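Could you please review the protein record set out just below?
***
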Amino acid sequence: MSANTTELLPVGTGERPVATPGFGLSDIRRLLASTTTRAVIIAIALLAGTFWFWNYSAKSGLISPLLVAPPDATFQVLGQMIESGTIWVNLRATALITLLGLGIAIVAALAISFVFVFSESLRKAVYPFLLIIQTFPKVAIAPLIIAGFGYGTTPKVILAALMAFFPILVNALVGLTNINQDQINLFKSIGASPWQVIRKLRIPNAISYLLPAMQSAAVLALIGTIVAEFVSAREGMGFAIQAAVQTGSVSTTFALLIVLGCFGVIIWLVMAGLNFLLRRYRR
């Protein structure tokens, strides 16, 4: 090309160049600004630190092996129980009692709370007795319940329901009664029936209180089931843990505790998922 020839260059369209996608420092800072991300990082750090201290204390002799089993022996026993299927038999029995107790507690607490909404006099008369029952130590009354209802499934379900009942009742009452009087007057002014007030106003308001309470109640129902299985049972996680303690098998005890802890977390996560799915029905 000669020196006098004008070189043709592409004419700019005025559009800015498109940035190539990437993950930069600003993205990392934005990710770390999330409370959920920080919570996950802290949880992982705590889990890793706990496992390290567990392994160190067991291998170094800092804690007696009669009290703390080494992680490798614990997970070896856990793998054997999973392979043989014995863990599933006990876990299924505990899960069944826990779910039955939780279901009965939810139904009973909601039914009583609805009755209390319509009768304040009855609520003031009965509520102190329910409070007294809640203060009873469940470990102490477990033998009495078993002696009264036998050694089958019924006493274990009753104990699990008793553990889960009171938190649901308290939160249901707060949700059903903590209503602005102006809202109630508005419903009455348009001719709404008492059932419509409950369905359109009180129940949506109560959901915000009920769902968090059910998360705690589910874990309490599991604790009640374990207590009942300690006292009298032929299967279940509580029965298996008690048998392992009596035989002096520390690694088996730790393996069962790990399974029980994971099961408790799963129950809590399921209730948290239900809380998330029903958030649109909240007030």
Summary: Residues 194-231 form the longest helix (38 residues). The chain has eleven helices and no strands. The CA atoms of residues 42 and 166 lie 32 Å apart.
